[in-house]
Amino acid sequence: MNNRALAVRLGALTLVAAIAQPVLAGGGVKATTKYDGERPKRTVVKMDADQYCAKANDKKVGSQEAIVNKDGTVRNVIVYVKDGLGDAEFEAPTDKALLNQEGCMYKPHVQSLQTKQPMMVKNSDSTLHNIHSFAEKQRAFNFAQPQKGDEKEVTFTREEIVKVKCDVHPWMSAYVGVFPHPFHSVTGKEGGCELSDLPAGEYTVVAWHETFGEVEQKVTVAEGEAAEVEFVFKAK
Question: CA distances (Å), 50 to each of 125, 127, 218, in order?
Fold first, then answer.
């Protein structure tokens, strides 16, 4: 067999071997969050200090800091992997997260993103807002957006859950969870969320809430399967 024929044969064997390798699908975590206690009552956000804000919403706006559904599930909980990824590094997404000021409220109230992922801060109101982050592990930002349509891009470089407030309107607050990996999410209206494409392994997963604190669990993720986990916040 000449060298060319040998090379062709070896190339074909390599291709067959590559095709024969199983494609391993990532697993995940399906999280449900609940509150074990008397359901908190939401209050109406009072915006009378700014006449624009008072007229900006068609309906009354409820408080955001503790939203518990009738079935006990909790909205606006950040669920994230705390431990188990080892020294793995993950490239930051290039798509921009959005923190919008609309109706004199921050939307979304709680979100999560990755370190070095850009976040656009936008003013959709025809009134002055001043955005102030209360970061402890990285440089905080503090800037005004006086005009409707004003935008400013910011990034976070370290892992931290950052509180953001408006210095003009004291009822306006938001939280941004920042993590060095993509395995994080925020519970929606049904009180649940999912961490996708998580490699098989054992992890410590945390559920964090601005009022109820945080709880964590050890979770085992099997290849190609989603582990179902329930986090319960106990009334203090």
Answer: 12, 9, 47
| Phi, psi (rounded to 5 degrees) for 124 | -100, 10
Return d(Cα 212, Cα 67) in angstroms, integer: 11
Torsion of CA 137, 138, 144, 149, to 10 degrees: -110
Tokens encoding 24:
């391993």
Tell me the domain boundaries of the chain.
27-234
Render pLDDT for 6-15 as a digit per residue (tens, 0 to 9): 443 434 333 3
Q: Please name the amino acid found at residue 130.
A: N
The domain 27-234 is placed in CATH, from the list 2.60.40.420, 3.20.20.80, 1.20.1050.10, 2.60.40.180, at 2.60.40.420
Which secondary structure element, helix H or strand E, spans residue 137, and what is its range? none
Q: How confident is the model at residue 21 (pLDDT cuts 50, 70, 90)?
A: very low
